[in-house]
Amino acid sequence: MSVWDEVPNLKNKSIPELKQLCDELRSKIIDTVMKNGGHLSSNLGMVELTVALHYVFDFPRDKIIYDVGHQCYTHKLLTGRCQKFSTLRKLGGISGFPKREESVYDCYNTGHAGTSISAALGIAKARDIKGENFNVIAVIGDGSFNNGLVYEAFNSVSEINSNILIIINDNHMSISPTVGSMHEYLEELSSESEGNAKKKRHETIFERFGLSYDGVYDGNDLALMIDKLTCVKQKLRERSVILHVATKKGKGYLYCEENPQETHGISATNGAVEYSSVLGETLISMARGDDRIVAVTAAMTPGVGLSEFFTEFPERSIDVGICESHGAVVCAGLAVEGMRPYYAVYSTFLQRAFDQIVVDICSQNLPVVMCIDRAGISGSDGETHQGEFDLSFLSLIPNLTIAVPKDINEFRKMLLLSSAFSGPLAIRYPKDGYNAFKGSSFEIGKWEIMCEGNDCAIIACGERMITLALAAAGHCAERGVSCCVVNARFVKPLDTEVLEGLKQDLIVTLEDNALIGGFGSLIDCYYSETRKQIKNFAYPDEFIPHGSVGELISKYGISVDKVSEYILKNANR
Fold first, then answer.
1. Could you tell me the fold of the domain covering 448-570?
2. β-strand pairing of 425-428 with 506-514
3. Phi, psi for residue 565 in degrees, rounded to 5
4. Which SS3 state, helix, strand or coil, does residue 198 take?
């Protein structure tokens, strides 16, 4: 048996042959992720379980939904994508997540946690309505099992009454170690013996939802998984089943096994300073002198730079698990009682808490600081992880101030001033910082003129766009066109004093965000009754695929060449 077969037929293979295949798959995943970046330890832990699933079930007739989806690499290698696997997460290559557009074996696109069981119920109900006959499987990790949507789905199992298989892949980790009462509940199930009466009592919670519980089994024991999945497949004819398996995150690669948190995601190093490290360092310094400061995250402690804060201030550190909406309301509760919560969260995950930001934080005008990491193009994780919408969905909310630092020094200044700010504040920034521009006086709500020019005003927000704006201004200056560059470090409120003072008829806006509802649209609205000619450079009305940050920004026409070309063509008309 070779992993290089297009779609290998596993069903007539022996256990030794399948174990050899697992070794080949694991080697392929390690080699590729080390070159391309990606999710390593979670995929290594899933190899045996995935091979067993493909041995027992009949894909693509049967349907499988991977919660979050980042653990689908073995599935991709077994479904005709092995020859393309070297293109993983590259522009034009295969995605690091399930993609219906990519293969008939991917029945549902995932990227955020907690959706798999709801999707499985919907697919199964459609199957039953149409009188079809296939199995539907949701594979969900113990980290995702904290998400509230899971329990909304459980509440519908009996009502929808369509049989599904839920596999809990319990490796005790999300990105950070799994936290919360449900994690402790799964731990209790895992630690008790098969015949223990206490364990049996715990299992009844799933029975109350209309689910038959079976577990806990070693998910890295290939023969055992094949046996258990074969039994469960028969049971699915009668009812929905939860199969609880324990896997080793990083299985087969000692460094990953010993460091599952650090090897959850692998990135190529680029010499940049991460904004998250600046957040962690600055909050620690602030918290030492201000006992109101509390750090809150949603299962992303190392990713958002808070590991050292959590170590130094455990009583003022809260990890709510993969429950972003809950985290936002916790912050609101903290603020009501006079604390200063800092909610550190990736842009793509913040959108899950939109309602709570509107109602709980902003309508009460509470001093919650949202530290929005990976804003703008985030790169190789693709559509579900790009942070291209936060300016659009946040700018419409009353009471909210939105800040976009030009570099890490300005970011640090924003944080230092934020503890005295009286209302909701969102600070958005990319992963990496490269430039440290010349310092300037800083005041909340005020913009900065970075260079003067009479022919065009380039209004940009964020480090990537400021860098591009200055480069474009230099390019135009070499051709006799002078540009004023404005650092719009506060998207909301707009600095109307600066806007009123711009005498240039040609205005160009640059932002690392979607065009619709973004910063440029606010400038368009402000100048709507004037004769100014305005061009907005932003991302079009579509989802941005995976690829490197530079490739994607350029692909969508935001480049020094494109900006300069437009200015040179339209200046002094």
1. Rossmann fold (3.40.50)
2. unpaired
3. -60, -45
4. helix
According to DSSP, the β-strands at 273-274 and 432-433 are antiparallel
Catalytic position from the list 26, 316, 352, 406:
352
Confidence band, pLDDT 50/70/90 cuts, at residue 40: confident
- Specify the pTM: 0.87
The yes-or-no answer on residue 352 being catalytic is: yes
Residue 63 has pLDDT above 70, yes or no: yes
- The token pair at 470 is 């200055």
Residue 264 has pLDDT above 60, yes or no: no
Domain at 273-433, CATH homologous superfamily: Thiamin diphosphate (ThDP)-binding fold, Pyr/PP domains (3.40.50.970)
pLDDT at 560: 94
Q: How would CATH label the architecture of 15-263?
A: 3-Layer(aba) Sandwich (3.40)
- Mean pLDDT over 141-145 rounds to 86
When the pLDDT of each residue in the chain is averaged and rounded to a whole number, the result is 90
- The verdict on whether 324 is a catalytic residue reads yes
Catalytic residue among 26, 127, 248, 249: 249
- Provide the pLDDT for residue 1: 42
Task: Indicate left, alpha or beta for 417 from its phi (over 0: left) and psi (-120 to 50: alpha).
Answer: alpha
Catalytic residue among 48, 203, 324, 410: 324
Q: What is the pLDDT of residues 346-398, one digit of tens each?
A: 999 999 999 999 999 999 999 999 999 999 999 888 889 999 999 999 999 99
Q: How many angstroms separate the CA atoms of 12 and 381, rounded?
A: 35
Three-class SS of 63-132 = EEEECCCCCCHHHHHCCCCCCCHHHCCCCCCCCCCCCCCCCCCCCCCCCCCCCHHHHHHHHHHHHHHCCC
Residue 249 is a catalytic residue:
yes
Burial of 565 (0-12, 13-18, 19+ CB in 10 A): middle
